[in-house]
């Protein structure tokens, strides 16, 4: 049995589907602070299998320990549960440290106590800051975090590293996600931001659907070919599959080190304006947008070197930008029609 913390969230739910498709039994825990229990029904609709579910906040240490007592079959943990809004983290840093670091400590302590020692962690390309050399490899230096959120990812990686040094039986992989976008091809699960979206693609799809009057593009005076920022946008199902191969690597003892990390991206840099143009092309819609000033804290450009994940995990992004943006649009339309 694989425990997925935050398994009803955006990346978590897609990963549960892929884990089940790969034959794993899955237990989800979530405090539903940023997701909905209905996602469990939707996962069951897609896979035909209902994952186990426990409503649990990982900040509650006692209940976290009880979970491992109740489910002695847990053999590995994929840890998604965390707060993830960069701007909010600047306003509420203590909440971010408590949620993201406190929960990590509780889950690791419970794993240690119950001898469940396989761990996959959601990290982020945010640990690289603005790299001098592109694409970034796993050897690129980590830069001081720009936000409390980013800092929680740095600190989490360090905590996992220290624990791995102290306990050689503990086997961990951190996946450094680039920008996850898109949705499951069924249109049943996808990204569902609370309130006004911070991220580009949900803002694009909500604007196209008429929920927002227009998209603001944050800056066209960057040192990039069209002046807008560049990111590496990774399809969420491709990203979910990276977790499955990471889990298999750990369970099959194929890892070369007891703490490894991998960049999970496409290896391709795409600008904000390219996202808009591609979205318009695949949907045949005109998007209302305007270019405004830069957003504070944005980095200019980043994309991943993915050869380590390609070679070691045998994983490669499969889905192109066109189909990924179409899947995001399909999800937005499906969701709005039924809710
Ligand atoms: N953007 C816009 N308009 C919007 C939203 C975004 O122009 O309304 C632009 C941003 O300026 C940026 C690009 O779209 O250039 C992507 O922005 P996102 O907010 O979607 O993503 P970020 O790259 O800023 O942040 C993502 C994750 C964070 C993570 C970070 C790591 O959301 O969790 O990558 O670099 F920390």
Describe the model.
The protein is an alpha/beta fold and 339 residues long. Helices cover 42% and strands 16% of the residues. The strands form 4 sheets. Strands 3-2-1-4-5-6-11 form a 7-stranded parallel sheet, sandwiched between helices. Helix 6 links the parallel strand 5 and strand 6. Helix 1 packs across helix 8, helix 5 runs parallel beside helix 6 and helix 9 packs across helix 11. The mean pLDDT is 97. It binds uridine-5'-diphosphate-4-deoxy-4-fluoro-alpha-D-galactose. The site of uridine-5'-diphosphate-4-deoxy-4-fluoro-alpha-D-galactose has 20 residues, from helix 7 and strand 8.
Brief overview, please?
The chain has helices at 10-21, 38-47, 61-70, 86-91, 93-113, 148-166, 200-209, 236-251, 272-283, 307-313, 321-338, and strands at 2-5, 26-30, 52-55, 76-79, 118-124, 171-177, 179-181, 215-218, 230-231, 233-235, 259-264, 270-271, 289-292. By secondary structure, the protein is α/β, with parallel strands linked by helices. Helix 2 links the parallel strand 2 and strand 3.
